[in-house]
Amino acid sequence: MKPFILSFLLLTFFGVQSQELLRFEVDAGVFDRQDCPVSLAIDQINLNTDDGTLLLFELVKGKEDPVSCQLESGHSPRLWFVLSGKTKKREKREFILKKEKYSTPSEKIKIQKDYRDLKLEKNGNPILSYRHAITYPPDGVNPIYKRSGFVHPLVSPGGEVLTRIQAPDHYHHYGIWGPWTETHINGRMVDFWNLSKGEGTVQFAGFLSEVEGTVFSGFKALQQHIDFGAKGADQIALNEVLDVRAWNTPNNRWLIDYTTTFNCPLDSGILFDAYRYGGGIGFRATEKWHKDNCTVLTSEGKTRVDADGSNARWCLVEGESSTPEGRSGILFLSYPANRMHPEPMRVWPLDANGKRGDMYFEFCPIRNKEWKIQKGSDYALRYRMVVFDGKLTTEEAEMYWQEFANPPRVIIEN
After folding, report:
1. Could you say which of 2.30.30, 2.70.98, 3.40.50, 2.40.440 is the CATH number of the domain covering 109-405?
2. pTM for the complete prediction?
3. Of 14, 28, 20, 101, which is closest to residue 56 (Cα–Cα)?
4. Cis omega (within 30 of 0) for bond into 342
5. Does 8 score more than 90 pLDDT?
6. Minimal CB count within 10 Å: which of 37, 104, 202, 339?
7. Alpha-carbon distance 210 to 112, whole Å?
């Protein structure tokens, strides 16, 4: 069933009768915060009325400053907003949630969709595209490499394309994606990653929801891992829901959540073998990047020289770009509940693809230990990307991870 998402927008209101619903504090805790997404459960509020719109205000020096908020309804409704600006550790900020009759719309992250792509844009600037149409390889290349269901291009705030698809050395590489590689179904090997084997693939099967709002915009897409080697017709080995969400933060960086939830419909389940590639979140970087102009730094202080095979909470990948800052990059964050967190990584060594040293990165939760996926259970992996131009410091990287892993605490007043 598709979730029903409502977006509530606000600016300035005059002479409007309002109803106060609740007051709460946001406690930054022991970490500094910067433009951090925050949410709270609002199960106790009756949302099934038409007597007004939910509006959020921050109490600042006795005044009520409007704050954009967005309701995510469903089994447990949550109210989302961005804790804007700098919030120092142990600082508390107070908010009031109201219902009022009228509101004035403010700027959203826009969704544009055509026959090929679903695109997210902010103020006319592209953030990313999700390819839902089947994409064929270049003329003369075996069509077995065709695929749908991947992110490309991912674009920096300054307009630099950071992803690459169908590189001649790896036609099965598709921007940002995460198929499983060495798997077993009833003792039979099935590879959903190396398309040239003809054992399996991943395909887009439909959009489950599309959300456009002032706090976040995004989509949920059903992706199916198809096993070509089953007796009789091809079979679905995995149903995957890819949830991609771009946050409308006030700074000039993109904050993007990438969550994959999957289950197996087969009675026997499926075994993900331990292997250096597979699942998680994979990133094939722009062809601009090579060993002489691209760097890697992990939360454990590893660089491109020694990051491969190590574990990390976050990994910062950056390289030369044509933006005014001259550099662009992505900070990849792994969530603490992910399997094998801090997660093992695949980072191409400096001599990858011959002398150029092209860039590939992946969080790979099965690198060191196999994973049995049972029928009837859901499994989830959560990641966040911070996309930027210029410089992102290690202190900022650690702050972003703490915001993702340990968000500020919400205290509802009685």
Report:
1. 2.70.98
2. 0.94
3. 20
4. yes
5. no
6. 104
7. 11
